[in-house]
């Protein structure tokens, strides 16, 4: 709790001597401490604050596998506050490392249980998806095709921000397919 508090009130200057390479692997390990949800939540908060306050730490957080841990917390929602914190973390990480998030399965993870979240959290999920779709790699079809149907369903959503993010995300996906002629949207690679 003390580490979480220190990181949350810290600034980039005050944390300049913070040992990111010492703490991040420990925090990622604690994020997998499945028999103690409070520890997992505090680790997720500390990592989220760290990436927010000390942007240079994001590469270390990615290197030590935090993205896959956050994705796992979203795909098996046992604790809603931990899932919401995981979304917050992925939103921040996806701003700097969208492809790493995409390759770890975060795009489908942030959309999987969308209906269980409040509108505010749904907006975070869609903003995260939009970050991941901004600059899709040439092999993106494996990562994005499964989200096209649920994303298309969001075009009828009641919240303007969710609708806006869904529209932008789909636009990025279609632009990527237009830019990479080798990627073809066919009935064979559309799920369902």
Question: What is the makeup of the main sheet?
Answer: none
- Beta-sheet strand percentage? under 5%
Low-confidence stretches: 186-190
Order of H and E elements: HHHHHHHHHHHH
Query: Percent of residues in helical segments?
Result: 55-70%
The rounded distance between the terminal residues' Cα atoms is 44 Å
**Class by alpha and beta content:** mainly alpha
What kind of oligomer do you see?
single chain
Mean pLDDT over the residues = 86
Return Rg in Å. 17 Å
Number of helices: 12
Shape from CA axes?
A: globular
By DSSP, the count of extended strands is 0
Verbal overview:
Helix 3 (37-53) runs parallel beside helix 6 and helix 6 (80-96) packs parallel to helix 9. This protein has helices at residues 2-9, 20-31, 37-53, 58-63, 66-75, 80-96, 98-103, 106-112, 119-133, 141-144, 148-153, 160-179. Helices cover 67% and strands 0% of the residues. By secondary structure, it is mainly alpha-helical.
Features:
single chain; 192 residues; mainly alpha
Strand and helix layout:
Layout: H1 2-9, H2 20-31, H3 37-53, H4 58-63, H5 66-75, H6 80-96, H7 98-103, H8 106-112, H9 119-133, H10 141-144, H11 148-153, H12 160-179
């Amino acid at each position: 709790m003390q580490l979480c508090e220190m990181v949350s009130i810290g600034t980039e200057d005050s944390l300049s001597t913070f040992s990111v390479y010492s703490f991040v692997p420990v925090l990622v390990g604690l994020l997998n401490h499945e028999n103690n949800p409070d520890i997992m939540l505090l680790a997720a908060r500390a990592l989220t604050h760290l990436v927010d306050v000390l942007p240079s730490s994001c590469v270390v957080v990615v290197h030590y596998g935090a993205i896959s841990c956050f994705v796992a917390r979203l795909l098996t929602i046992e604790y809603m506050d931990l899932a919401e914190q995981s979304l917050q973390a992925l939103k921040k990480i996806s701003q700097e490392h969208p492809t790493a998030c995409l390759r770890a399965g975060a795009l489908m993870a942030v959309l999987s249980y969308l209906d269980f979240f409040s509108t505010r959290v749904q907006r975070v999920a869609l903003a995260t998806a939009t970050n991941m779709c901004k600059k899709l790699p040439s092999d993106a079809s494996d990562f994005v095709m499964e989200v096209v149907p649920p994303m298309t369903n969001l075009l009828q959503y009641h919240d303007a921000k969710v609708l806006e993010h869904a529209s932008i995300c789909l636009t990025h996906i279609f632009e990527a397919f237009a830019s990479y002629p080798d990627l073809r949207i066919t009935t064979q690679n559309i799920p369902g």
